[in-house]
Amino acid sequence: MREFFLVLVPTIFLVLSWPLTVWAQNTCTSPPPSVEVLALQEFYNSTGGMQWINKWNTSSLNPCLGSFGVTCHVVSKNCHVTVLSMPSNNLVGTLPSSLGSLSQLRSLQLNNNSISGELPISTWNLTNMVILDVSFNRMRGRMSISIGGLLQLTELSLSANKFFGSLPNSLGNLAHLVQLDLSRNRLTDIIPSSLGNLSNLVKLDLSGNSFIGTIPSSLGGLLNLTKLSLADNRLMGTIPSSLCSLTVLTELDISGNRLSGSLPPLVVDLQSLVALKLQSNQLTGTFPSYLSNLTKLEELDLSSNLFVGSIPSSIGLLGELSRLVLSYNNLMGTIPHAMGKLVKLADLNLNYNFFEGPFPVEVFDLPQLRALVVANNQFTGTIPSTIANLNKLVTLRLEVNCLRGSIPSTIGSLATLEVLDLSWNNFTGSVPPSIGNLSHLQWISLGSNGLTGSIPASLYQLTELQGLYLYDNHLTGTIPSAIGQLSDLEGLHISGNALTGTIPVSMSDLSKLKLFVVSGNILTGTIPPFIAHLPELTGLYLDTNQLSGTIPASLGAPRLLTVIYLFSNALTGCIPASIGDLQYLLSLQVFSNALTGGIPASIGSSSVLVELFLYTNMLTGTIPMLT
Q: What is the pLDDT of residue 626?
C-alpha cells in the first residue's frame, strides 16, 4: 500500500454548533496520528480513489496539508482529522472499518456517490460526530442500535439508499439532532415514539419507506419542527391532533399513505404552514373551510381522497396560494367566484370531481396561471374570449365536461401553451386556424366534439407537436402532404370523421410515429408501403374506410407493431406471410374484405397473438391454432 496526499484544491468546511471544548480555532498543518493516516489510505483504496473526480496524490505524507475534502484541527493539543467531505466525487466501493480510527471526526459527508455495502460497525464509535451524511448512494443494511451513542449529532442523512429493517428506539437519544433524513430507503415496522424526544429537531423526513402503524402522537412534541414528511409509506389511522401543536411548521407532507378520518380542526393553529400535502390517502369529510385561515399557505394538495361538499368562498382568503390540487375526490357544486382572488395561483387542478355549472370568468384573469386542469367534471357554458389573458398558461385541460359553443380564436394567443385538451365536450364550429400560432404546442386533443370543416393547414406548422387527436368529429377534406412536416409526431388519431382522399406518402417522414389511427373515414387508395419506414409504430388502425389493393408485404417490417386493424375495407389478394414475423403482434383483424388464398402458417406460430379475425373474406385452407 502506498502513502499519499497532495494539495489540489484547498477547502475549508464550516461546521456549526461544535462543542468549543474540543474545537480549536486554528487549522493545524502537522501530520495526524499514523492510525488516522492509515485509515485515510484504506478509505482511498476502498472507494476507488484513482477514479475520483478530485484525487489525492499518493506521494504526500501529510493529509492535513490541504488534501481535497480533508480538514484537520488541533484537538487536545494534537492534530486530528475532523472533516472528511467528498460529496459528488465518484466514490465507488465500500467504506473500510478503519474509518472508526478517525476518533475526532466531526463531519463525514459522502453524499451523491456510488458507495455500496454497509456502514462499518466502527462508525458508531465516532462519538464526536456532528454531521453524518451518506445520502444518495447504494448503501444497505440495518440501522444499528449503537447509533444512539452518537450524542453530538446535529445532522443525520441516510436518504436515497437501501437501508432496511426497523428504526432503533435509541434514535431518540440524539438530543442535539436538528435534521433527520431517512427518506427513500426500505425501512419498515412502526415509527418509534422515541423520536418525539428530539426536541431540537427542525427537519424530519421519513418519506419513501414502508413504515406501518399510526403516526406517533409524540411527534407533536417537536415544537421546533419546520418540515415534517412521512409521505409514501403505509401508515394508517387518523391524523393525530397533537400535530397541530407544531406552530412553526412550514411544510407538512403525509401524502401517499392509508390515513383515514377527517382533518383535525386544530390544523388552523398551524399559522406558519406554507405547504400542506395530504394527497393519496382515504381522508373523508367536507372540504375543510377552516383551511382559509392558513393565510401563508402556498401549496394545498388534497387530491385522491374522499372529500365531499363544495369549495367555500373563503378559499379566496388564501392570497399566497400558488398550487391548489383537489383532483380525484367527490367534490361538487359550482366554483366560487372568489377563486379569482388567488392572483398568485399557478397550478389549479380540479380533475375528476362532480363540479358543475359555468366556470367563473374571473379564473381566466389569473395572471400567474400555468396549469388549468378541470377535466372529468360536469362544467357547462362556453370558453370566454378572455382566455387570452392567461398568457403564462402551459397546460389547458378541459376534457370530459359539458362545455359548448365554438372554440374562441383567442386561444391562439396562448404563446406558451404546450398541452391543449378540449376533448369529450359539445364544441361546435371549426377548428380555429389560430391554434397554428401555438409554436410550443406538443399535444392537442379536440376529439369527441361536433367540430366541422377541414383540418387547418396551420396545424402542420406546429413542429414540436407530438400528439394530434381530432377523432370523432365531423371533419372533412383530405390529409394534406404537409403532415410530413410534423417530424416529432408520435400519435395521430383522426378516426371517426369524413376525411377523403389517400394516405399521403409524406407520412413516411414521421419516423417517431407510434400510433396511426384513421379508422372510420372515407379514405381511398392503397395501403402505402411506407409503413415499413415507421420503426416506432405500435398501433395501425386503417379499418372502416374504402381502401383497396393488396396488403403490402412491408407491413411485417415495423417490429414493434402490436395491433393491426384493416377490417371493413375493399382489400384483395392474400395475407402476406411477413405478418407472422411480428413477434409482439397481439391483434390482427382483417375481416370484411375480399382477401383470398391461404392463411400463412407463420401467424399460427405466434406466442402472443390473442385476436385473429378473418371472417367475411374468401380465404382457403386451415385456420392456424394460436399457441
A: 66
